Amino acid sequence: MNRRLFCMLSKRLDELGLDEIHDTRADRGKRWKLGTLLRATLGALVAGTKSLAKVEELSERMSQPTRRLLGIRRRLPDTTLRNALCTIEPDEVRKPLHVLIRKAHRRKALEPNDLPFGVVSLDGKGFSVPSSDDWYAQRQTQGEDTALIGIVRTVTATLTSSAAKPIIDVTPIPAHTNEMGVFEQALDSLCKAYRGVDLFQLVTYDAGACSAHNATLVRARDLHYLFGLTAGQPTLLQDAKHWLGSRKAAEADAVTEDFERGHRVVRRLFIGPTTAPYDGWEHLRTVLRIQTETFDASGTPTRTDERYLISSMPSVRLTADHWLLVARRHWGVETSHQILDIAFEEDDHPWIEACPRAALVVAILRRIAYTMLALFRSVTQRSDERRATPSETLMTDFFVALISTTEFELRDPKPLRMR
Predict the structure, then answer these.
(1) 163-172 burial by CB neighbour count: b if 16+ within 10 A, else e?
(2) Are 183 and 207 in contact (CB under 8 A)?
(3) Hey, how many other C-beta atoms are within 10 angstroms of the C-beta on 266?
């Protein structure tokens, strides 16, 4: 197992192009190459470390093969690593993420799972630091007598059509704007990063980005959208309820039944074409209503929710089952956020607190580490049991591999199949 984990990490780190990231540090007194520091950071993130001090501690415990892999000959001081991370522009560390995804696509590791084409889902995420620069971190403190709090915010793009649910891009949200204001930038970044790559055809977002302007931006790039619909678009929502709201459960176009936390959950999809044109929404073609009903152990309904969605894609392009699957998988972006919060403990351990830009750099590196783990678990692993391994367990396995892999294990003549 050590050998398999070690070899995967070696392959992924080698293909990222970390040595090509621009180093702005002065030559005088520079004892560590920036690429080496970034390799060490990603290796430590994959192994579940939660602070710069823990990276230094790990660097002392690494086996000789690991030291050779990461280019570390001696203990890596946490102050050296922190100072280096504070000099990096966030856009520089987004490039290796794009390289990682393009190479995974070339290996056919990102094929759509149970869907006819790729789907990318976007959503915002933030974490707090006790500092603010009013650019990378939005000031949240309300008064002079309260502690300074800044929120570092990003828009995550997750490929929810893939079994791995990898993060394929992350766009910083400047302090002066919000998710709606940065939508075009996030969309352009995706299109630029994957130009010429048939990675996705549909862009999904919750109601936070639903506007005629954003919908038009998606269509102008020859993509389709699926947006959540709420009272922020009152006319559209009213008409959507008029078109689909009266349909009964027996008239559902698709139904799924799942057991979640001991409760039976039934989801019903109702779908139909739009029947009236709207100014600015000429590209709108399809309206969806999803009814979610939760039952207790006795079969008594305990909760019923409904949400509406709109899409530029004609309803006939997908089966009803596929439409319901796409709508449910949008929350795959939330799953990636949960893993960042729970397994990586991003909210509690941003690593660098006094420099919001550096905290953002670490956050982007954390998303690269997440994607490396996601691809390994869902693509490289062959058995269903291994693909169900919790992220925390997999990170512990990598930690063990980094400190215990021996030269003898790496000399095993049996070839490894890596995707």
Answers:
(1) bbbbbbbbbb
(2) no
(3) 17
266 close to 257: Cβ distance less than 8 angstroms: yes
Strands 119-129 and 150-159: antiparallel
Asked whether the beta carbons of 21 and 88 are under 8 A apart, the reply is: yes
Residue 371: count of CB within 10 angstroms of its CB: 23
* CB neighbour list of residue 219: distance below 8 Å, 6 or more residues apart: 225, 283, 312
- Residue 394, exposed/middle/buried by CB under 10 A (0-12, 13-18, 19+)? buried
- Tally DSSP H helices, then E strands, for the chain: 15, 10
d(CA 165, CA 188): 21
CB 168 within 8 A of CB 85: no
What's 71's DSSP letter? T
pLDDT over 70 (residue 416): no
Query: What are the pLDDT digits (tens) for 125-167?
Result: 999 999 999 899 999 876 677 888 999 999 999 999 999 999 9
- Encode pLDDT of 107-132 as tens digits: 999 999 999 999 999 999 999 999 99
What is the rounded distance in angstroms from the CA atom of residue 222 to the CA atom of residue 211? Answer: 17
The Cα–Cα gap between 15 and 8 comes to 11
pLDDT of residue 413: 53
Kindly tell me the sign of the dihedral angle through the C-alpha atoms of 333, 334, 337, 339.
negative
